[in-house]
């Protein structure tokens, strides 16, 4: 039987070093080209960068130079994140961030821009998101990219079924979902429910990780500080991979290792550990 090694993408936090979500600056303390070289040399086929990383790139080497180095390192998939606030029609303060992410995605050839919502109680009516998301998808498509919504169990759009409902209401080829496995199981969504709500046309990207059965602290603290390497937690990562393949997903697989432990690992050790453990889940 012939097997093909999956294209694995080191999502932004996997190679970021000692920095995390909602830090004063989310920019990695590791120079971006050092990250690019290390990611490429440890087997990955792509990598992600967060908005504050992209600000640094814009002010230093520029996106064209970053793309040149990434391609030279063998990286075919570049990701950018995270846009929020896009549903606010009167307050346009989110636009500066969105415009930079759009420029970066265009220059880097990113397949999509990750977007999310703010923390809060899940909404019961998706209406306020539909037209703004359709407009955002129009802008992305005009720039040659797409938008991938990441539902968060502590966010306004809190589950993959709810996210899928919104994407189908938007009904735009440049609007889809980013399916992060942590957000699937922490929202209480079973693999059967996941398969029922998804189809390959709306799944733009996937993120793999693992975690213990019990939540430690708040959901945000748990996702930021307590994820584990794949296979070192209690979740059915292999079952999730089978489920996503069964629905017809054929794209690259992001690996998002986000934890206080991972942030302390030296860059090359962090990348090797995240890559080898993720690969075992496919075997």
Automatic annotation (TrEMBL):
Q: Which InterPro entries match?
A: IolE/XylAMocC-like (IPR050312), Xyl_isomerase-like_sf (IPR036237), Xyl_isomerase-like_TIM-brl (IPR013022)
From what superkingdom does this record's organism come? Bacteria
The record's section on Pfam families has: AP_endonuc_2
Location of the Xylose isomerase-like TIM barrel domain: 36-263
- Its recorded name reads Xylose isomerase-like TIM barrel domain-containing protein
Organism of origin: Microlunatus phosphovorus (strain ATCC 700054 / DSM 10555 / JCM 9379 / NBRC 101784 / NCIMB 13414 / VKM Ac-1990 / NM-1)
Tell me the organism's taxonomic lineage. Bacteria, Bacillati, Actinomycetota, Actinomycetes, Propionibacteriales
């Amino acid at each position: 039987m012939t097997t093909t090694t999956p294209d694995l993408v080191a999502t932004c936090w996997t190679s970021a070093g000692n920095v995390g979500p909602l830090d004063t600056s989310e920019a990695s303390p590791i120079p971006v080209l050092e990250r690019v070289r290390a990611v490429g040399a440890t087997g990955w086929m792509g990598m992600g960068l967060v908005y504050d990383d992209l600000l640094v790139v814009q002010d230093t080497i520029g996106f064209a130079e970053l793309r040149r180095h990434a391609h030279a390192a063998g990286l075919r998939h570049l990701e950018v994140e995270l846009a929020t606030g896009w549903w606010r029609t009167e307050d346009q303060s989110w636009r500066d961030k969105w415009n930079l992410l759009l420029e970066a995605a265009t220059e880097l050839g990113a397949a999509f821009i990750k977007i999310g919502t703010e923390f809060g109680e899940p909404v019961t009516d998706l209406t306020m998101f539909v037209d703004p998301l359709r407009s955002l998808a129009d802008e992305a498509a005009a720039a040659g990219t797409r938008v991938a919504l990441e539902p968060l169990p502590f966010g306004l759009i809190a589950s993959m079924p709810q996210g899928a409902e919104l994407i189908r209401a938007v009904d735009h080829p440049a609007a889809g979902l980013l399916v992060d496995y942590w957000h699937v199981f922490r929202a209480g969504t079973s693999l059967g429910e996941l398969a029922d709500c998804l189809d390959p046309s709306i799944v733009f990207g996937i993120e793999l990780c693992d975690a213990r059965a019990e939540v430690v602290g708040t959901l945000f603290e748990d996702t930021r500080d307590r994820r584990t390497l794949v296979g070192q937690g209690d979740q059915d990562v292999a079952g999730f991979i089978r489920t996503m393949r069964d629905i017809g997903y054929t794209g690259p697989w992001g690996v998002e290792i986000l934890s206080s432990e991972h942030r302390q690992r030296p860059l090359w050790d962090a990348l090797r550990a995240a890559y080898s453990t993720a690969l075992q889940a496919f075997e």
